[in-house]
Amino acid sequence: MKKHIAIDLGASNGRVLVGDLGEFEVVHRFVTQNDQILGEFYWNIQSLFAEIKVGLKKAFAKYGSEISSIGIDTWGVDYVLTDDKGGLVSLCYHYRDSRTDGLIEQVSKQLGGKMRIYERTGIAFQPFNTLYQLAAMKRDRPEALKAASHYLSV
Fold first, then answer.
1. Distance between CA atoms of 71 and 61, rounded to whole angstroms?
2. pTM of this prediction?
3. Which of 78, 114, 122, 135 could bridge 154 with an S-S bond, Cβ 3.0-4.6 Å?
């Protein structure tokens, strides 16, 4: 029977699992690293990537050709910006960073109200949502947005 790899990244820990619809095994578990730098809260993307690679190596070492797919589940609101060669333009803010505090009302007003935002996006009004993170980036780090060629959801 074919096996599937699932990578689950949570706010405090991550894990790499291998299984099928009947059962699964956690082959690697790790703490999701984050850093506070000059009062701002960031994900340590390099550490996350390194831990995912450790888990993938363990999974393939144990299950090899039985593996047919890889999927990943993350917190879904954070992102990285890269330049045209794939290099990071800025660090990856953590959704728990406070830079988005108070932006729901401000952004809603700029975009025609909460109902219009909800009708177009279906998102809940949480300060950590990507919309507010991008608004904070535009306000606080416009040079990073200008330098970015690509947006990658985490």
1. 18
2. 0.85
3. 78
